[in-house]
UniProtKB/TrEMBL annotation:
Residues 267-557 form the UTP25 NTP hydrolase-like domain. It is found in: Nucleus, Nucleolus. It holds the Pfam family UTP25_NTPase-like. It comes from Brassica oleracea var. oleracea. Residues 1-173, 382-412 are annotated as: Disordered. This is U3 small nucleolar RNA-associated protein 25.
Length: 756
């Protein structure tokens, strides 16, 4: 709920691996959630108007709230700490509109004080089973390692590049300071929860053909810092530049990674849905984006640490008056409820391995003298092959060998001898001279996790009150990379995780309440969180998440192909030319009034128009390709009710059952096979004996369409395929048939189209 606008200026107003058992549990959970987790009409982006007018949720009414956790916490602390008690009473007087001197006659408090002299800036919490937690780790900002020298900021360093001095660090810190020091207006507090953003400007996306950046508010691209160090801490910038030049890179200023870093450093929410991934011949582009968001994350973490340590130094010099200074000087408000500030969500361990290894490389050598638990990390996350060429491997004798497989190259890059486990979570802590992997989550600066693992942790916390996920309460930078792969897992898990970020914590975790930023105490943290979503394509679910749960007050910027019935500049070419067989491809459009009705309309069209043609088929060989597990369950249940002869190759079908189903289908003892897109993504089984191919809905991944089409039995004289679509499937259609054809098929008076 949005806070009352009257409280905007108030300083401290609180508001609100794959074993059988796990696979079975996941399957039941997915099927249960499938019925309730599918996109709504507003999430579909089949026109530019829908893209520019995001979801408009009904504004929540402002009602009287009971005292929150931190109301009670302040009251309890006040009973034993006079300074905190005075602060709490001043806050209450401010809310009541009284002056600081009114009601002083009733002030009273105990002289016994608890320790609040700066050591609480470090977060305390239980180990969560990763490392042994000690008092020294809980208070690591005051450990010997970090306090052996005074705090170090780049303002005190004289770094230079190629003999030229870098820009003064004060300007490089402006984006960070400006973002977190902004005070939301009453109008912003009213409109931000509604997600009412309109894209107001466009700009060419350099080195990305057919793409343009689209953003809200003003065009920040014209105002980004164009001189080194581009908003980075000078030490970080110098190290990054050296790595870039060492790898053979030229003209860093105009490189993709530098440009994308500048966009990240704007602190706007970012939706980049046209990133070519490393597993699809896009290693350089993928690495550039990864470099940019990792440097942005390190920059944010180090600047946060600099601010905290600078204030610690001031407090240490004035111990006797430090409490009063903290209460009266907003400059000491430098913390959140917990320490972790960056959350990176990734789909697989192998991808997390790439990210963490690069994170270590991007950290200046003086700040990674020691990387703790690196051997354990390599053992648990490592991949056998991390060469730049996905098709080549190096043998023990140093010779290059070519790896041949019947699986497509993208599958080889993701799953071929790679660690594709999707259940992991890793805390990373940066100290003055080292990086600690597997750190306690509450004392980590960054958390790298899969949506599945965090979803499980959230479920455990809901069942067991002794556990919690409060380490998500103070996330300031959220990065979701390879969202397209996550959509092949379970998108609802990701949506649940994002929904739990920036909630008020359930426990104190050793937090120094007097140094928490007002934006956290006022329940406004989600409006300051920057969210960066990276994917190779866009889905309604991604757009829905971006519209509903990415509410950064700075605004948002997105990149996508120009594809709508109105604007036809720069088109998708489609993938129909990759279909090698002479197949007559029929596209049948069904009508649906809204996105919420599209699923029912699709099933009704299938049962009345498509199934009657195949149920009495003598030859069989009918394969129905279904992208959504939700639709898979519905079609499966319908075929059961019709006593149809069919077999399944679904998301959770066991290997033995898959082998049996493939044999039955090829032999003709089962006339129909249901094959899900997710099962194909993970397994890539080629099915023999297909004579009639039905796309219940077009696949999200465009490369799957020709791969499936080319499975048709070439010896059959009556090969054919049928694809069902509605006007809400434009995003999929334009990737497969091309933008021009897709727009024509959506708007035409005819409902049946053929490609030969």
């Amino acid at each position: 709920m949005a806070p009352n606008s009257k409280a905007v200026s108030k300083r401290h107003r609180p508001h609100e691996k794959y074993d059988k058992k796990r696979e079975t549990k996941k399957a039941k959970l997915v099927e249960k959630e499938a019925v309730t987790n599918h996109p709504t009409e507003e999430d579909d982006l089949d026109s530019s108007e829908e893209e520019e007018d995001p979801i408009e949720d009904e504004p929540e009414a402002v009602v009287y709230r009971k005292p929150t956790t931190y109301d009670n916490l302040l009251a309890s602390l006040g009973s034993s700490n006079k300074a905190v008690a005075d602060m709490n009473k001043r806050r209450q007087r401010e809310e009541e509109g009284k002056s600081d001197t009114e009601g002083d006659d009733d002030d009273s408090g105990s002289e016994d004080q608890i320790s609040t002299d700066g050591e609480d800036d470090e977060i305390q919490g239980d180990d969560q089973g990763l490392t042994e937690n000690t008092e020294k780790e809980n208070n690591d900002n005051h450990s010997e390692e970090e306090d052996s020298d005074r705090y170090e900021t780049d303002e005190e360093l004289e770094l230079s590049t190629n003999g030229q001095p870098l820009v003064d660090a004060s300007s490089s810190a402006s984006a960070f300071n400006e973002h977190l020091s902004h005070i939301l207006s009453s109008e912003e507090l009213k409109t931000l929860p509604e997600g009412k953003w309109k894209f107001k400007w466009e700009a060419p996306a350099i080195d990305m053909p057919n793409c343009r950046w689209k953003g809200t508010r003003h065009n920040f691209l014209d105002a980004v810092q164009s001189d080194a160090p581009y908003g980075l801490k000078p030490k970080l910038f110098k190290h990054w530049l050296q790595l870039y030049q060492k790898s053979g890179g030229k003209d860093f200023d105009s490189s993709k990674r530098r440009r994308f870093f500048s966009i990240c450093n704007s602190y706007l929410d970012i939706l980049h849905c046209n990133k070519r991934p490393f597993y699809n011949k896009g290693r350089e582009e993928d690495s550039s984006a990864m470099d940019a968001y990792l440097m942005h994350s390190l920059n944010h973490i180090f600047k946060t640490r600099d601010l905290v340590k600078k204030n610690e130094s001031k407090i240490a010099k004035h111990r006797e008056t430090s409490e009063e200074e903290i209460l009266s000087d907003d400059g000491f408000l430098d913390q959140g409820f917990t320490r972790p500030k960056v959350l990176i969500l990734l789909p697989m361990r192998s991808i997390a391995f790439r990210v963490v290894k690069r994170l270590i490389q991007l950290t200046p050598e003086s700040q990674r003298v020691n990387v703790e638990h690196l051997d354990r990390f390599n053992a648990e996350f490592g991949c056998e092959d991390e060469s730049d060429d996905d098709d080549e491997k190096t043998s023990k004798n140093g010779k290059s060998t070519t790896h041949k497989s019947s699986k497509p190259s993208d599958w080889q890059a993701l799953f071929g001898e790679k660690n594709s486990d999707d259940e992991f979570m890793l805390g990373i802590k940066h100290t003055r001279k080292s990086i600690r992997l597997y750190g306690d989550f509450y004392s980590s600066d960054m958390i790298i996790a899969s949506p599945l693992k965090l979803h499980m942790a959230i479920g455990q916390a809901e069942e067991n009150k002794e556990r919690d996920v409060d380490y998500l309460s103070s996330i300031e930078v959220l990065i979701i990379d390879h969202a397209d792969i996550i959509s092949m897992q379970n998108w609802s898990f990701l949506a649940t995780v994002v929904d739990h970020i920036n909630r008020l914590p359930t426990k104190q975790h050793g937090t120094n309440v007097m140094r928490i930023r007002p934006l956290y105490l006022d329940g406004q943290a989600r409006f300051y969180r920057q969210s960066i979503i990276l994917s190779s394509y866009l889905t309604p679910e991604m757009n829905g998440l971006f519209n509903r749960q990415c509410l950064n007050y700075k605004g948002r910027v997105g990149i996508r192909f120009h594809a709508s019935p109105i604007k036809l500049a720069c088109e998708y070419k489609g993938v129909l030319e990759k279909v090698l067989l002479p197949v007559r491809q029929i596209y049948e459009r069904f009508d649906a009034d809204s996105m919420t009705q599209a699923d029912n309309a699709r099933l009704e069209y299938f049962t009345k128009k498509i199934f009657p043609k195949i149920k009495d088929s003598v030859q069989g060989g009918v394969m129905i390709f279904i992208p959504s597990y939700y639709d898979f369950v519905r079609v499966r249940n319908y075929l059961k009710s019709q006593n149809a002869s069919f077999c399944l190759l679904g998301d959770y079908t066991k290997n033995a059952d898959i082998s049996r189903a493939r044999e039955w289908f090829f032999a003709g003892s089962r006339k129909i096979m249901l094959y899900t897109e997710r099962a194909y993504f993970y397994r890539r089984y080629k099915i023999r004996g297909i004579k009639n191919l039905i796309f219940y809905s077009l696949p999200e991944r465009k490369e799957f369409y020709p791969e499936i089409m080319n499975m048709l039995d070439e010896g059959s004289y009556d090969m054919m395929s049928t694809a069902l679509f509605s006007r809400f499937d434009l995003l999929k259609m334009e990737r497969i048939v091309g933008t021009a054809y897709a727009n024509r098929m959506i708007s035409s008076d005819k409902s049946i189209f053929a490609f030969c």
